[in-house]
UniProtKB/TrEMBL annotation:
Similarity-based family: Belongs to the UPF0223 family.
UniProt organism field: Virgibacillus litoralis
InterPro entries attached to this UniProt entry: BH2638-like_sf, UPF0223
Cited SUPFAM superfamilies: BH2638-like (SSF158504)
Name used for this protein in its record: UPF0223 protein J2Z82_001691
């Protein structure tokens, strides 16, 4: 990983940890397998930090631009799949 996560300097240490954890799981969904429940739980915590849909889209776009990994398809698949673990392809 040679890029930076999109973060807001006004967030607390705990909020930064939650956002970084969420984006780390997005990476894992593309690089290996991830647990459905882990993604859904991390997304809920991400939404506690970033409740606005427009801000969410901005952070998702910034992360995708930096990493090449799209967050929305991972969250969508986690919501729709019945599998306990899954992976996403680019």
């Amino acid at each position: 990983m040679s890029y930076h996560y999109p973060l807001d300097e006004s967030w607390s240490k705990e909020e930064i940890i939650e956002v970084v954890n969420f984006f780390t799981l997005i990476e894992e969904a593309y690089e290996q397998q991830v647990k459905r429940e882990d993604i859904l739980a991390a997304y809920r915590k991400f939404k506690d930090v970033v409740p606005s849909k427009s801000e969410e889209k901005t952070y998702f776009a910034d992360f995708e631009k930096a990493s090449g990994y799209a967050s929305y398809p991972v969250v969508k698949k986690a919501r729709e799949t019945e599998q306990k673990t899954f992976t996403v392809t680019k």
